[in-house]
Write a structure and sequence with these properties.
The structure is a homodimer of 332-residue chains.
Chain A lengths: L5 H8 L3 H8 L9 H13 L6 H8 L4 E6 L5 H16 L3 E6 L4 H13 L4 E4 L6 H9 L4 E4 L10 E4 L1 H13 L5 E7 L4 H15 L4 E7 L4 H12 L6 E5 L2 H13 L8 E6 L13 E4 L2 H17 L7 E4 L2 E3 L6
Parallel strand pairs in A: 1-2, 1-3, 3-4, 4-5, 5-11, 6-7, 6-8, 8-9, 9-10
Antiparallel strand pairs in A: 10-12
Helix pairs in contact in A: 1-2, 1-3, 5-12, 6-7, 8-9, 10-11
Chain B binds a DNA duplex (16 and 16 nucleotides) through helix 2 and helix 4.
Pfam family, one (chains A, B): LacI
Organism (chains A, B): Candidatus Chryseobacterium massiliense
GO molecular function, one term (chains A, B): DNA-binding transcription factor activity
DNA sequence: CTGAAAGCGCTTACAG
DNA sequence: CTGAAAGCGCTTACAG
């Protein structure tokens, strides 16, 4: 697998490597004669030349590589975000490196180091709990970074997010108006700001009502088991109940519980879930869900990062998108 | 974002860059004195040195990068394969570049070019229809490649696959013995060898029985619509019927049809699907499915590729794994 | 219109 | 025990 280099082209076309480089990069500015130009192009084609991006990167001090660190790539939300980011990155000439840290700060740190060694021009990250140290190091090095989905409480990095609190309030409002005896919020026991926002929005609306509300908060591991156990303990079918699952993982676990216990939706219990996932569509009832504008978020994140790369600034702006409540038939 | 280089270390520690390089790469062979060694390491740490892999790659003529081209990353099968490959690649010191060509040969070709320019040491690919040209070019350049899941009819590339024909025959045998009036095979109208194998295995077993069989073959786009339409036309609930969905996408579309039409499984119709996906678990009946040994396949593919990289050979061996039929309650 | 030369950050065979 | 130097494949300011 010996690859042709511009040196080879230069030798065969009997010109200098400089000239080859100019022609190949279309930087001649009409300086090079048509004859040499076509000769060079022909030779390049005939020996199957492909540029060595590594060499170019070294010289140019930029790789046109972007690193993406998601919290969990097996989550449909993140895999869809990744696809959209890849498309957008490509449009701006970047190649995307994808890493999943699986909510593990050690793995998060390792990925930042890996990407850094790989000389990525910047990173799009979804911070996980305890990833602050690794992130601060990047900030200190003035590494271009942009957050997505999640954000940091104490640091103002540029990033994209949704109106978590607001949309939760809307959902809750919708449920409150339907006159349920009880509304159950299913969320995570976590410090992640965007998730606390979802909880806050819900709480605020509940506070203004006189409806009884319960909170089921679970750890980030063993989601299925914990959701099942807590639903067992908290779901009282003698009451007219609505459940709000604040993530797709929680939603899937909850739907699974309802299937296993033959609880029919929305006859016996109503529900709303966060995010969209293919799995919702195999549930016997159409699931009402919160849809995030993935494409717009992906596009904006790449744009923000590109800006950071071209002109580094410390006070990044955070862009908030509006999630959309898609009403289906799972709420009665 | 000015990064420290070994030159900086050399200057501060007052040694040559050669010495720094030896120490950093632990290639001293006890040649360097402990004093200089620790001095260099201390300086490296204090100025936050991270090696520039780009420079190293250029010099060493290898990047420790592997490219993975899957047919469709939004398919759970491929995203799980990708995760497993990433883990295995990491173990051997490789970083994984992931690309999804979405069954599009143009995109496939573009990804091979992108990866090639990025100087990946090798590629793991799932060939799509009409990708032969791009693949032949790689072969001609003696680029280390390994196929996964799918394989090529006319070229013997090293690769991993499952016993498609055999497992289909087993499934069919299982259904034949249950004495259905009719068995429907749902597959793709395609030339992809591994899918034709699935069909062949089914056909062979049917031929030895006297059960009526139907084939529903659909195009690779608009899966949901086509499956719905053809099931509408072909499903006769007055007969005792079993359906065999030969991919997870087909399975999901089919399950969706059954949900939409309130057809109960296995009471009114029995079914088996290929591959595992989270969505199956939200279906009211536990779905019997074919499980592929993803981890083993991923590991073997990386191993085969690593072998190719270290010692290129043209006659690659193909490794076949055994898929497993997981019987649940969707067949009566 | 074209080329010689420096340099990006590394590694390593060679010399001392 | 340590260093000078060449070279990986490019780009580009400069000279002619």
């Amino acid at each position: 697998m010996k690859r042709a280099s511009i040196k080879d082209i230069a030798r065969i076309a009997e010109v200098s490597v400089a000239t080859v480089s100019y022609v190949l990069n279309k930087k001649e500015g009409s300086r090079i004669s048509e004859a040499t130009k076509t000769r060079i192009l022909d030779v390049a084609k005939s020996i199957n030349y492909t540029p060595n991006k590594i060499a170019k990167s070294l010289k140019m001090n930029k790789t046109k590589l972007i690193g993406l660190i998601v919290a969990d790539i097996s989550n449909d939300f993140y895999s869809n975000i990744a696809r959209n980011i890849e498309d957008e990155a490509m449009k701006l000439g970047y190649t995307l490196l994808i890493g999943s840290c699986d909510e593990n700060p050690e793995k998060f740190k390792k990925l930042t180091e890996l990407f850094s060694e790989q000389q990525v021009d910047g990173m799009i990250i979804a911070p996980v709990v305890d990833s602050d140290e690794a992130i601060n190091k990047l900030i200190q090095e003035e590494y271009p970074i942009v957050t997505i989905d999640r954000y940091l409480k104490n640091v103002s990095l540029p990033g994209v997010m949704i109106n978590n609190s607001e949309i939760s309030e809307q959902i809750c409002d919708h449920l409150v108006k339907k006159d349920f005896d009880e509304i159950i919020y299913v969320g995570y026991n976590t410090e992640l700001p965007h998730l606390l926002d979802r909880q806050d929005g819900f709480d605020q609306r509940i506070a203004k009502s006189d409806i009884s509300a319960k909170r089921i908060l679970i750890g980030i591991h063993n989601i299925t088991e914990e959701v099942h156990q807590k639903m067992q303990e908290n779901l009282d079918l003698s009451k007219k109940t609505a459940i709000y699952f604040s993530s797709n993982k929680l939603g899937i676990a909850g739907l699974r519980y309802l299937i296993d216990h033959s609880i029919s939706v929305p006859e016996q219990v109503s529900l709303v879930a966060f995010d969209e996932t293919e799995a919702y569509y195999l549930f016997p009832t159409e699931v009402s869900f919160v849809q995030q504008p993935l494409y717009d978020m992906a596009r904006e994140s790449v744009k923000l990062l590109d800006n950071q790369i071209n002109d580094y600034t410390t006070n990044g702006k955070r862009v908030t998108f509006h999630a959309k409540f898609m009403e289906r038939s799972s709420v009665k």
